[in-house]
């Protein structure tokens, strides 16, 4: 019966789309495309003058259906490209394709969800510019957002530099927004604003979160599917605080190329907007949905897990062999499968060399991973520095790692977001996959869906994370609100190597509670979760939180947002096997009761163990009880506090 209802609904919405597909108003035409569930509508608005085709233009509008009515979310959004040979700002519509259904299933080895559904209605619009050169724009309308990309057919045998876009998102005035000032390292906060005025300029990183005033709807703007022919882009509202224009990122000093150099045909990255309730946005897999399928056939060697990590505690790498041993012993004690041997391992001393540290780890049943400098910057001299940049050196290094028994690499300090860096990321992932090496990118760009294409990409930094306790005192007072913002912004688009769960202090203190820190292991998603504190801090934990950290997964079958608001609080539930793990954060300076329901379990009752804040911020309170359907759980949290729970 449900299948029949679904088919009838599918036929109805596609018939509706077909009937409405070309609505003409004089010389204006509206081409609506509706999501499979009928909640989101994209309308391509085309306008041209009969007397002068060069005035032709195309914009798109986005609507969301609430209470049976379409409400405007974003209207008057601009489209177009600029190349070194042709301009595509005045667009002449040549044809509008038919609506096609994209409906595929795929599995992820890591991330917020194991089984993902790539389900959308897709339409391709064919345009030309004033000189008759073609440009296609492909739109997909999903149940949880939209995606679109540009495609240039072959009209030249020469290389073309796609230098810029005219793509502009027209944000209504007074829209609430959480956006990070652009920097190719993506290590900053997401300040709240209604004006769009920035403290560090008017360029913004992805992802950028907005809360619409016109409808009870949220949307998160980002991009995905960047290939070796696509520079990354960013947003700028320099010209108008409410108009966010897409532009391609230039590199850091010494890597100033801007644009996309390619032979034709060429395709852009996907521009993505996750749209709906805050829960819909957080749970969306749109970034991997639009990305290329896995290029790795055999995947049994790719295993998410927890990692013992040295840098946070000492603001130093693994130059000391005895420290490498100490953190291997920590991994063994805590039942974590991996240890990271960090920078300066090439000069390791005090009783052993790198090979000794690797062999010691293997003797304990721990899988070692090691750090590399990407070799692309002219300002970072941390070693080893020149083993990843060129393919011949990289392959030689990977063969050696296979020989000595290393399972993964962390590659750090990339030079920017320009096209050659996108190519380097993908080249490293491909070569690492060929050698069965898992990869973690640091000092790097944001996730762009590559974890689907290359499942050996386990995590990416691109976040103002716990290591910043080493670099200044700003994290001390801002960590709680920042941590309660990241689940709605940065972590939505992919794995985030924040290096969490610290109970002692690094160079600068933290004032989040122990319960808050413990909760980061669930709230933050990363297939390699680098636990950052000193061994003695973990050994000193009470049995309940210690045992929790010994068993908490790092890859998930399902994810649900149970409650939250950016910067205020979050309650996240993640399932692995038969258990649900729940993490809650209080981002505010006052004590708070976090409330949520477990009725989504579709059970009459379940056992739940809760580890929450104790009498003070350095203690825990653990309790186990039977939950009954209909019962609203209420967890007391200290200022900047938190909790974890296991439901089975």
Topology summary:
Elements: H1 2-20, E1 23-25, E2 28-34, E3 40-47, E4 57-66, E5 69-78, E6 81-83, E7 87-88, E8 92-96, E9 100-107, E10 115-128, E11 134-142, E12 145-152, E13 160-165, E14 168-170, E15 176-178, E16 192-193, E17 203-204, E18 208-211, E19 218-224, E20 233-236, E21 243-248, E22 260-262, E23 266-267, E24 270-276, H2 278-283, H3 286-289, E25 305-308, H4 311-314, H5 321-333, E26 338-341, H6 354-363, E27 367-373, H7 391-404, E28 408-412, H8 419-434, E29 438-441, H9 450-453, E30 457-460, H10 474-483, H11 514-523, E31 528-531, H12 535-539, H13 543-551, E32 558-565, E33 569-576, E34 579-586, E35 592-597, E36 605-613, E37 620-628, E38 632-637, E39 642-647
Parallel strand pairs: 25-26, 25-31, 26-27, 27-28, 28-29, 29-30
Antiparallel strand pairs: 1-2, 2-3, 3-4, 4-5, 6-7, 6-13, 8-10, 9-10, 10-11, 11-12, 12-23, 12-24, 13-22, 14-21, 15-16, 15-18, 17-20, 18-19, 19-24, 20-21, 32-33, 33-34, 34-39, 35-38, 36-37, 36-39
Helix pairs in contact: 5-6, 7-8
Task: Write a compact overview of the structure shown.
With 648 residues, the chain is an alpha+beta fold. α6 links the parallel β26 (338-341) and β27 (367-373). The chain is globular, with a radius of gyration of 25 Å.
Q: Could you explain how this protein is built, in words?
A:
With 648 residues, the chain is an alpha+beta fold. It folds into three domains: 2-289, Beta-galactosidase, Chain A, domain 5, CATH 2.70.98; 305-556, Aldolase class I (TIM Barrel); 580-647, Golgi alpha-mannosidase II (Immunoglobulin-like, Sandwich). It has 13 helices and 39 strands. The strands form seven sheets. Strands 8, 9, 10, 11, 12, 15, 16, 18, 19, 23 and 24 form an eleven-stranded antiparallel β-sheet that branches. A seven-stranded parallel β-sheet has the order 30-29-28-27-26-25-31. β28, α8 (419-434) and β29 (438-441) form a beta-alpha-beta unit. The longest helix is centred in the first third of the chain and has 19 residues, at 2-20. The two termini are 31 Å apart. The relative contact order is 0.09.
